[in-house]
């Protein structure tokens, strides 16, 4: 097993870097940060034009037939630059599920627009009273009428529907059989956000990101918007969580480390020596560097497993939980290393490294919650990786 990139993948990565260097100007970065929204239509269209939106997809569906390593280095470069791609990622994830199990009509209706940037899809899983227990969803979908053309009427709410205020659709988990066990009575729908009765209200996070609480008040959708079998939503949800749980956050560590090293090399102490001459500074940088390396290796192991035809059931959560908790540790370590100046605000002109240390400290706290909390990840590792009982 090795994780060295071949020449073609390295060339592809270099092209991605060149493109991001051209489009991610400081002005663009500030505008995205101040908006709190990790999406920009023009940026997403630029990825499509360059072939960087869904490179692994077949050419006939808008992709380039590239391999998993090409897709991995693309993800790494986008994350390392903190590019605004979250809505693009959720759109692509849901499009992959529709491609796998959707009806021919739904595929024709959604896939072309999703892959060329004309359609966007946000996730509607978590509910205000359920926390990480997604299967406890109380949002209801009730059949109105009989026969295959009968509508579903949806009532309820979802929390942390990031980008739900700008997306075209919500990939929604709803309860369709309240009398069945909670994992057995769920169904997945694709809900058009233009539907009557849909509303998104802003919720601002510690990192400055806008997410949403979304409300569904007698929202009517046809059965053609159902994805998977009735009461088979937990299995459909499993496909999406398989993608999310195999995430890695090592590139965020790389960006933090690069800024920390630059600060250490360019900052002088009272005696005129560079900060990096201090043994404590070197120790902290070394610790961040080691955990960055482990984070990247854990994520690339997941890619290698996919390439071998295996599903990283436990290995994906291992990558996610280690890299996010490492990012949290590293962010705290770096701020302690820099001192009080490290808490100056993001983009504040006098802040070290433009305030990226302070932002990383705030941002890192949420990463241990995204795509399943660390507790959920550890449960998956224990049960599915180690075979331990519930």
From TrEMBL:
<feature type="domain" description="Acyl-CoA dehydrogenase/oxidase N-terminal">
    <location>
        <begin position="8"/>
        <end position="118"/>
    </location>
</feature>
<dbReference type="Pfam" id="PF02770">
    <property type="entry name" value="Acyl-CoA_dh_M"/>
</dbReference>
<dbReference type="InterPro" id="IPR037069">
    <property type="entry name" value="AcylCoA_DH/ox_N_sf"/>
</dbReference>
<keyword id="KW-0285">Flavoprotein</keyword>
<dbReference type="GO" id="GO:0050660">
    <property type="term" value="F:flavin adenine dinucleotide binding"/>
</dbReference>
<dbReference type="Pfam" id="PF02771">
    <property type="entry name" value="Acyl-CoA_dh_N"/>
</dbReference>
<feature type="domain" description="Acyl-CoA oxidase/dehydrogenase middle">
    <location>
        <begin position="122"/>
        <end position="213"/>
    </location>
</feature>
<comment type="similarity">
    <text>Belongs to the acyl-CoA dehydrogenase family.</text>
</comment>
<dbReference type="InterPro" id="IPR009100">
    <property type="entry name" value="AcylCoA_DH/oxidase_NM_dom_sf"/>
</dbReference>
<keyword id="KW-0274">FAD</keyword>
<feature type="domain" description="Acyl-CoA dehydrogenase/oxidase C-terminal">
    <location>
        <begin position="242"/>
        <end position="385"/>
    </location>
</feature>
<dbReference type="InterPro" id="IPR036250">
    <property type="entry name" value="AcylCo_DH-like_C"/>
</dbReference>
<dbReference type="GO" id="GO:0005886">
    <property type="term" value="C:plasma membrane"/>
</dbReference>
<dbReference type="GO" id="GO:0016627">
    <property type="term" value="F:oxidoreductase activity, acting on the CH-CH group of donors"/>
</dbReference>
<dbReference type="Pfam" id="PF00441">
    <property type="entry name" value="Acyl-CoA_dh_1"/>
</dbReference>
<dbReference type="InterPro" id="IPR006091">
    <property type="entry name" value="Acyl-CoA_Oxase/DH_mid-dom"/>
</dbReference>
<dbReference type="InterPro" id="IPR009075">
    <property type="entry name" value="AcylCo_DH/oxidase_C"/>
</dbReference>
<protein>
    <submittedName>
        <fullName>Acyl-CoA dehydrogenase</fullName>
    </submittedName>
</protein>
<dbReference type="InterPro" id="IPR046373">
    <property type="entry name" value="Acyl-CoA_Oxase/DH_mid-dom_sf"/>
</dbReference>
<keyword id="KW-0560">Oxidoreductase</keyword>
<dbReference type="InterPro" id="IPR013786">
    <property type="entry name" value="AcylCoA_DH/ox_N"/>
</dbReference>
<dbReference type="InterPro" id="IPR052161">
    <property type="entry name" value="Mycobact_Acyl-CoA_DH"/>
</dbReference>
């Amino acid at each position: 097993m090795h994780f060295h990139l071949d020449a073609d993948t390295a060339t592809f990565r270099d092209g991605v870097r060149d493109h991001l260097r051209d489009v991610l100007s400081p002005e663009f970065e500030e505008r995205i940060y101040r908006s709190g929204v990790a999406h920009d239509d023009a940026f997403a269209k630029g990825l499509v034009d360059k072939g960087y939106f869904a490179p692994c997809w077949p050419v006939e569906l808008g992709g380039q037939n590239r391999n998993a390593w090409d897709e991995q280095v693309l993800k790494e470069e986008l994350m390392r630059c903190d590019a605004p791609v979250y809505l693009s990622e959720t759109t692509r994830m849901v499009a992959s599920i529709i491609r796998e199990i959707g009806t021919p009509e739904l595929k024709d209706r959604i896939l072309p627009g999703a892959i060329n940037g004309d359609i966007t899809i946000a996730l509607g899983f978590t509910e205000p009273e359920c926390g990480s227990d997604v299967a406890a969803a109380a949002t209801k979908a009730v059949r109105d009428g009989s026969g295959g053309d009968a509508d579903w009427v949806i009532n309820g709410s979802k929390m942390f529907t990031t980008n739900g205020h700008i997306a075209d659709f919500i990939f929604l988990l709803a309860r369709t059989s309240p009398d069945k066990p909670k994992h057995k009575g769920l169904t997945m729908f694709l809900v058009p956000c233009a539907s009557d009765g849909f509303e998104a209200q802003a919720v601002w996070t510690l990192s400055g990101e806008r997410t949403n609480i979304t409300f569904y008040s007698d929202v009517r959708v046809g059965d053609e918007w159902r994805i998977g079998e009735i009461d088979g939503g937990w299995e459909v949800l499993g496909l999406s969580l398989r993608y999310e749980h195999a995430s890695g956050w090592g590139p965020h560590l790389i960006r933090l480390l690069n800024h920390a090293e630059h600060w250490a090399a360019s900052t002088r102490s009272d005696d005129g020596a560079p900060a990096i001459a201090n043994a404590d500074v070197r120790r902290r940088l070394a610790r961040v560097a080691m955990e960055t390396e482990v984070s990247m290796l854990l994520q690339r192991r997941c890619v290698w497993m996919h390439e071998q035809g295996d599903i990283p059931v436990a290995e994906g959560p291992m990558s996610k939980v280690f890299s996010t908790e490492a990012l949290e540790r590293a962010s705290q370590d770096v701020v302690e290393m820099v001192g009080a100046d490290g808490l100056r605000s993001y983009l504040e002109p006098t802040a070290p490294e433009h305030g990226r240390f302070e932002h990383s400290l705030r941002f890192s706290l949420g990463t241990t919650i995204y795509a399943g909390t660390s507790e959920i990840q550890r449960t998956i590792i224990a049960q599915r990786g180690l075979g331990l009982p519930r």
